[in-house]
Amino acid sequence: HDVDELTASSGGVQKLPWWVKEREFEDPSVPIDWQNLPKMEGTFPYQARPTLSAQERYAMGIPGGSSGTWASPEQAQVLFDYMKKEFPGWEPGYAGLGDNRTTALFMATKFMRMGMWPGEINMGGNRINVMQAILKAGGTATFPSFMGLRSSETLRPQDFGVPRWEGTPEENLLTLRQVVRFLGGCDVGAQEMDSDVFKLFHEQSGGKQLVIENVDEAAETPTKLVIPAKAKYILQWTARQPYESTRRQAGEYEDAAVYYSYQRFPFVGAIIQEFIHALGYTAVSTHMMGYHTNAIATLTGMGEHCRMSSPILVPKYGVTNRAMWVIMTDMPLMSTKPIDFGVYDFCKTCGICADACPFGLIEKGDPSWEATQPGSRPGFNGWRTNTTICPHCPVCQSSCPFNTNGDGSFIHDLVRNTVSTTPIFNSFFANMEKTMGYGRKDPRDWWNIDDYTYGINTSY
Hints:
single chain; alpha+beta; four-stranded antiparallel β-sheet; four-stranded mixed β-sheet; 12 helices; globular
């Protein structure tokens, strides 16, 4: 497969297979009506979390409801019936997540998920509520913050009157790619901010207005988050999710494959911010909640919009990624172009994820310009998922035929090349995937796999 490595995208920053094509800036494969694209408030109408405790749920015969889960008892029962039919002999266990080993791994990987400080934990033989103590001291519930850590131990060139490191925009992006990968991330892209791109930023984040102002330094007040106008470069970086454990999730909720990613990568993002700060530049981020990161990812060449709508589909590993992370900086970065490898057209004829959804929440049929789901955005010709009643079950993400760990899948090089150039075969390939049984696998088998470190093949 040496030829796959020959064609590099955007000046060598994004190393993409030869069958991936570049498009013009701000022209992704999903059509966008920039003139009529509205800015969104940034509040999301998710369904309420369950109020019954896990013990109460277990007593009523429908286990589940542990901290972090979304499914109501009725939804959980639908999922349990679905999983039992899919994997004969599977049982939800005491927490609605499967057997004891699988449940224990989920419980362990929930620790400090989403960058949240822990609640009550054991420290020095005492039970200490860490989050409560930090909130009482005037801190926030999470350690990643808009302005970054800015540790008192971090020394900067400005502190010594020496010039900061200066590179070309391409050198700067390559530098950040090296740091991202050193810390456990994967790929990087970049996009310079303009009035259109800023529409993909929300009006507010965490109850504070998100604004751009002509100021020298970023600021956070009780009412607003201020991005300096000079911090006009968007750095986007990707984080891969363990492939084998992703396709072996079962139960009322996403499992350790998701939660360990949410445990690791907020920390990685905070360190990337601190690195840029230590170089002498501004680095601000609302992390996942201040923008439509997947929409931005279609501009930076991270992947394409797909039928599932919530994840972005990446050419090298499908939808086995966990969020598309964003940092704003005044460190000049070379913009990377949108890409096209045929996914937008493939999804029109595939629909495997929509058929697999136990609740029918993923749109079927052709893409639409209309905001067809609660809380969704008009102005682009795509698909939208009804997240207001989605219990975040593990089915759709693990059913995508483009998922791969880099060591072979039904969408091998020849097939992926054909998908990218000859859409007439898309329906055939989708049917082939269904017939050959790729996609979701029995979660009980995962414990016997000789898996990669972090569950990720990094050889490509």
